[in-house]
Amino acid sequence: MRIDIITVLPELLTGPLDHSIIKRAQQKGLVEIHIHNLRDYAFDKRHTVDDYPFSGGGGMVMMVEPIDLAISDLKSKTGYDEIIFTSPDGEMFSQKMANQLSCLKNIVILCGHYKGVDQRVRDHLITREISIGDYVLTGGELAAAVIVDAIVRLLPGAISDEESALTDSFQDDLLAPPLYTRPAEYKGWKVPDILLSGNDREIEDWKIEQSIERTRKLRPGLLDE
Ligand code: SAH
Q1: Which residues, including other chains, have CB under 8 Å from residue 211's CB and lie 6 or more apart?
Q2: With contact defined as beta carbons under 8 Å apart, do 35 and 7 qualify?
Q3: C-alpha of residue 132 to centroid of ligand 1, in Å
Q4: Residues of the chain above pLDDT 90, percent
Q5: Pick from 113, 162, 186, 211: CA 20 to 30 A from residue 176's CA?
Q6: What is the H or E stretch that residue 145 is in?
């Protein structure tokens, strides 16, 4: 898979995408992540990428031309399945969407900044708009990092214990069961007996029961889906 991210603040992305599973997935060649500075596509000497809104009011708007140049440049070298824009009014990001996106070959993610982007970018260049939640961030970089992290850990081989990604919360519309590790008792706080029983079948049943119970208690809406 190949992910190209267009941003005015590359520094915000290099850190989050250069550690742990995401770093290893890149080293293993499962994913190529390319971060592009939008300012490299600015056409004036000062590398301006924003301007005042025609509608007045505070804040700056990212201009259509540098973004068009950036996306056209990428498209001239690679075919993309989706050109994604991160936006608080976009489709809500979910595990389902992460699964779906992880099956694509090449995607672009455009990070907004300031007040947002010129609407013509969204009308003519973007194929999908994604929000990571009903709140407003300073820029789309953290949203892009969240989206990329959720996608990349799903790529086959990214997580060494294959089963581990499939048994995470939301994969089957259920929350994950509770986890325990050694010691079996700490300050009198005990691990459930069943987990020490060595009976794999009963442990599997217990995990499913716990998942259903937790989902019923914490996220009953998931059970209706
Ligand atoms: N004026 C916009 C918010 C701009 S925030 C509005 O009222 O909707 C600046 C940029 O941060 C946005 O263009 C978007 O790219 C990003 N952003 C902010 N909140 C986000 C969210 N919840 N999900 C995804 N991207 C977000």
Answers
A1: 174, 175, 176, 177
A2: yes
A3: 9
A4: 92
A5: 186
A6: helix 141-152
Give me ligand 1 centre to Cα 164, in Å.
32
Q: Is 57 in the pocket of ligand 1 (CB under 6 A)?
A: no
Check pLDDT > 80 for residue 225: no
Distance CA 224, CA 145 (A): 30
State the distance from the centre of ligand 1 to the C-alpha of 113, rounded, in angstroms: 7
pLDDT digits (tens, 9 = 90+) for 83-118: 999 999 999 999 999 999 999 999 999 999 999 999
Closest CA to 83 of 98, 72, 97: 72
The pTM of the full predicted model, rounded to 2 decimals, is 0.96
Task: Identify the structural domains of the chain with CATH numbers, from first to last.
Answer: 2-152 (3.40.1280.10), 170-224 (1.10.1270.20)
Is 80 exceeded by the pLDDT of residue 161?
no
